[in-house]
Here is the input.
Amino acid sequence: MISPFRRDVVVTGFVLAIPVFLLGLRGDLSLDDVTIRLLWCLGAGWVAVALVRWASTPPSPRRGPGAAGPPEDSAAPAGGAVG
Here is the structure.
């Protein structure tokens, strides 16, 4: 679980909040609308960073009964020479 206040989450949230800031400065949104939408931008930044981190993490190797390698053939002579 990642913290909602990590640097990459906060930066992503602020990037997503740029249009909200601009609409607030232009007068299209009230101060209450801007503050509520900033919280949504932080949440969206957290989801975006979590999704990117999940997608970029390589899968862990699976260990199972067949993961030890191919079974050795006991009928073949040592050294690999036939005859």
User: Anything to note?
Assistant: The chain has two helices and no strands. The helical segments are 7-26, 31-56.
